From TrEMBL, chain A:
UniProt lineage: Bacteria, Bacillati, Actinomycetota, Actinomycetes, Kitasatosporales
Protein name: DUF742 domain-containing protein
PANTHER family given in the database record: DUF742 DOMAIN-CONTAINING PROTEIN (PTHR36221:SF1)
Domain of life of the organism encoding this protein: Bacteria
Organism of this sequence: Streptomyces qinglanensis
UniProtKB/TrEMBL annotation, chain B:
Record carries keyword Coiled coil: yes
EC number: 2.7.13.3
Annotated organism of origin: Streptomyces qinglanensis
UniProt keyword annotations, A-Z: Coiled coil, Kinase, Membrane, Phosphoprotein, Transferase, Transmembrane, Transmembrane helix
Molecular function (Gene Ontology), one example: protein histidine kinase activity
Coiled coil (residue ranges): 26-53
Biological process terms in GO annotation: phosphorelay signal transduction system
Official protein name in the record: histidine kinase
Class in the EC hierarchy, top level: transferase
Keyword check for Thylakoid: no
Residue ranges of the TM segments: 6-27
Length: 122, 533
């Protein structure tokens, strides 16, 4: 998943996407927040182009916020604002990333092992 | 006694002789006197003449002197003023009797010399001023670009909302500074200072508006049918032209009024139309703007006012150098309408949206935005990226109209799952109509793509084989081509149950896509970039 190559100087600056805002309306988002489109995609009318493109991007499946930012070629901070707006409008779902299945801690495993051994020996 | 008569005779004769002589003398002197009188009369007359002549000469000398004084006191200053301000009238001769005389010619020659000298000097001084400005702006511009890069990197690096917001604000300020410097540099004869790669026209328009405070008021409508791009060398100049015209529109309209921008594709190029509902321009201003934007006359810094208004002059320079056409006219909204036309032949190209996607902020093309969910991506032109827009003479609008008709039909057919989506084809089958009469092709034939398409969609019609194809014919072909490729993409996207490895030959079954997933758009971008896990 490499973003498209960025050759040359950008023509369209990032502040255009949010008219200069970089403080999202909710601060629950981070780079790994998983985004997926709302269940019933309403019409795209009334949305700004960057929002339409973000929704289009998510039509194919879920993406993390960082990935979406890379596809849109926008800074993460700006995409956070976009996402927060869309979540507020109910057009987008964002959830915290599901952590990798964690292995139990070594100490616990050792305790269990010891317990089993004592059971066996007794 | 005798002596007395003799003596008398002698005396008498002498007397007589004397009398005769005297008479003669008298007569002579009378003649002399008469001659003298005549001579004196002529002398007097001559004298009178001479006096008159002298008076006339003196008058003439006085008039000449007055004329020279007039030249020094009035005409020469008038001339210098007129050279600086063309509306100042230059007074003529004081005495119209001198018209056409040697004096007139001499004085005119003096004025010409003065005019030449002043003009040359002005050009020289202006050239020097421009050169020094160029030097300064080039350096500043380069520094501002570095700053831009730096700010951009920082925007990527720092996530903290407060920092990010400040960075965005700084970036915006930097863009505005760049725009000012750039237009000044261009008026001073510099090049735009930057070469970009081929870019989408929509990107250029939003890039241009991003350089202006008040850009929120700009509402861009994208009516391009194809992914039209501008060739690399004209990208930045085009952006500058649009920026200046947009700045004009924003500056001269109320800060709450919108500025409407429309991007249009024509047969011979693309146009950007900028409408404001502001204060408008007088006919005189309009005429001056038009003259400056034609780029035909050299502009002097000194003619641009104080502080110099560089907008129209910069537009004129770039229009001349790169081949744009820019014009202004009264807008139907009450303000000014500015139109930039970018000729297709040297300056436009078609871009592959998959290789080079548009900026997310660029306005969504009309065909894409208006197409409600059940229509696959309708961006035409992917399949033929080499095709220059002007190579299809009249097919353009017609093709899009047909494509639109096809979409409408598809939308109508889509709502029920039972119903197969129906498409209105403008021609029965491609193989049958490539050479058929256009009249036959006009008949819309409904067909269910699922059942019949395998053969019919098999080969998308190639570029017109007959050079004399009528506009309707080629419009049909392109429309069919676009529909074919679009449906092919849709089929590939949803897992190719139609079994088409070749997107062009795949039987389209778009309704499956709609039913199975929300994959309405089948956007090539999401197909390319999306992990779709």
């Amino acid at each position: 998943m490499t973003p498209p190559p960025r050759d040359g100087r950008r023509l369209v600056p990032a502040y255009l996407a949010t008219t200069g805002r970089a403080r999202p309306s909710r601060n629950t988002l981070d780079r790994l927040t998983v985004l997926h489109g709302a269940a019933d995609p309403a019409t795209v009318s009334g949305l700004r182009p960057e929002e339409i493109r973000l929704l289009e991007l998510l039509r194919g499946g879920a993406l993390s916020l960082a990935e979406a930012a890379a596809h849109l070629r926008l800074p993460v901070s700006v995409v956070k604002v976009l996402v927060a707006d869309l979540v507020d409008a109910g057009r987008l779902m964002a959830r915290a990333p599901i952590p990798d299945a964690e292995l139990p801690e070594r100490q616990i495993l050792e305790k269990v092992l010891n317990g089993l051994r004592t059971l066996k020996s007794s | 006694m005798t002596e007395i008569p003799v003596a008398l005779t002698v005396i008498l004769s002498v007397g007589t002789a004397a009398a005769v002589a005297l008479a003669l003398l008298l007569a002579r002197s009378a003649r002399e006197a008469k001659r003298l009188r005549q001579r004196s009369a002529t002398a007097e007359k001559d004298l009178q003449d001479a006096l008159r002549q002298q008076a006339a000469l003196a008058g003439r000398a006085q008039a000449t002197e007055a004329e020279v004084r007039h030249l020094a006191a009035a005409r020469a200053p008038d001339l210098t003023a007129a050279l600086a301000h063309p509306n100042v009238p230059v007074r003529g001769l004081l005495d119209p009797n001198f018209q056409g005389t040697e004096l007139d010619r001499a004085l005119t020659a003096v004025l010409e010399q003065v005019s030449n000298a002043v003009t040359k000097e002005r050009l020289r001084v202006d050239g020097a001023a421009q050169a020094s400005m160029r030097g300064a702006t080039t350096t500043i511009q380069a520094l501002l670009y570095q700053l831009q890069t730096r700010l951009q990197t920082m925007q990527e690096r720092y996530d903290d909302p407060f920092v990010a917001e400040d960075l965005l604000a700084a970036d915006f300020l930097n863009e505005q500074a760049l725009r000012r410097i750039q237009s000044t540099a261009i008026v001073c004869g510099a090049w735009p200072g930057l070469t970009r790669q081929n870019s989408h026209l929509g990107d250029i328009v939003v890039g241009a508006m991003s350089r202006l405070s008040g850009y929120e008021r700009v509402q861009v409508t994208n009516q391009l049918r194809d992914p039209v791009g501008v060739v690399a060398r004209a990208v930045e100049p085009g952006a500058v032209v649009l920026t200046e015209l947009l700045a004009n529109a924003l500056h001269y309209s109320h800060p709450e009024l919108p500025v409407a921008v429309t991007i249009q594709q024509g047969n011979r190029g693309a146009s950007v139309i900028i409408d404001d509902a502001g204060v408008g321009m007088h006919a005189e201003e309009m005429e001056r703007a038009q003259r400056m934007m034609s780029g035909q006359e050299t502009t002097l810094l000194t003619e641009l006012g104080d502080p110099p208004k560089t907008g129209f002059a910069a537009v004129g320079q770039l229009a001349r150098q790169y081949g744009f056409t820019a014009s202004v006219e009264p807008s139907p909204y009450g303000g000014v309408r500015a139109i930039v036309h970018i000729p297709g032949d040297p300056l436009l190209t078609l871009l592959d949206e998959e290789e080079q996607p548009m900026s997310p902020m660029a306005p969504v093309p009309r065909s894409n935005a208006s197409a409600a969910p059940p229509v696959p991506s309708t961006l035409p032109g992917h399949a033929v990226p080499q095709r220059p827009p002007q190579s299809e003479p009249a097919a353009g609008t017609a093709a899009s109209a047909y494509a639109q008709a096809g979409q409408d039909a598809a939308q109508q057919g889509a709502p029920s799952d039972e119903d197969l989506p129906r498409r209105r084809r403008r021609r029965p089958a491609p193989d049958a109509t490539l050479g058929a009469a256009p009249g036959a092709g006009q008949v819309p034939a409904e067909e269910a793509p699922q059942s019949q398409s395998t053969g019919r969609h098999a080969q998308p019609p190639q570029a017109p084989q007959q050079p004399q194809a009528s506009p309707e014919q080629s419009a049909e072909r392109w429309a069919a081509f676009q529909r074919g490729t679009n449906s092919g993409r849709a089929a590939v996207d949803e897992g190719t149950e139609a079994g088409g490895a070749n997107p062009a030959s795949a039987a389209p079954s778009p309704h499956h896509g709609f039913a199975v997933a929300d994959d309405h758009y089948a956007d090539p971008r999401s197909a390319e970039g999306n992990p779709q896990e």
